[in-house]
């Protein structure tokens, strides 16, 4: 996590930010596996356009884990399930990847690059899907 990002988090009251996320699933092709976007969401009450893509308003809580020695510290994502799309993706695909694209502050999006997680585990209670992401050991 860079210093500017840490300052932004402190300025806006910690990690309760309007994150823009891409939830991707791994699809198997004869030529190789690729991740395709299954859901684009922003933790906001209105949709947000960024980079030519629309992020749908959603209710979720994303908490990045602390990086240790410069390695990704994992994190958690709790997202309200309003239809079956999130659950269908969990059941159909073996691998889910979360990419944090940016954060909405004062009606402007600050882009975040290289901030992603591959799922470790997921549970759901009929109303909320809870993802726990593992630390990056690479």
Task: Report what the structure shows.
This protein has 138 residues and is mostly beta strands. The chain has two helices and ten strands. Strands 1, 2, 3, 4, 5, 6, 7, 8, 9 and 10 form a ten-stranded mixed β-sheet that branches. The longest helix has 9 residues, at 3-11. The protein is globular, with a radius of gyration of 15 Å.
List the helices and strands and how they pair.
Elements: H1 3-11, E1 18-29, E2 32-43, E3 48-50, E4 53-58, E5 60-64, E6 75-80, H2 85-92, E7 96-105, E8 108-111, E9 116-124, E10 128-133
Parallel strand pairs: 2-4
Antiparallel strand pairs: 1-2, 1-7, 3-4, 5-6, 6-10, 7-8, 7-9, 9-10
Salient structural properties:
138 residues, mainly beta, 10 strands, single chain, 2 helices, globular
Pick out the low-confidence regions. Answer: none
Percent in strands: over 45%
Largest sheet: 10 strands, mixed
Shape: globular
How many helices? 2
Global mean pLDDT: 78
Rg over CA atoms, rounded to whole Å, is: 15 Å
Query: What order do the helices and strands follow?
Result: HEEEEEEHEEEE
- The count of DSSP E runs of length 2 or more, i.e. the number of strands, is 10
Euclidean distance between termini CA atoms = 16 Å
SS-derived structural category: mainly beta
Range of helix content: 10-25%
Summarize the structure.
The chain has 138 residues and is mainly beta. The protein is 12% helix and 53% strand.
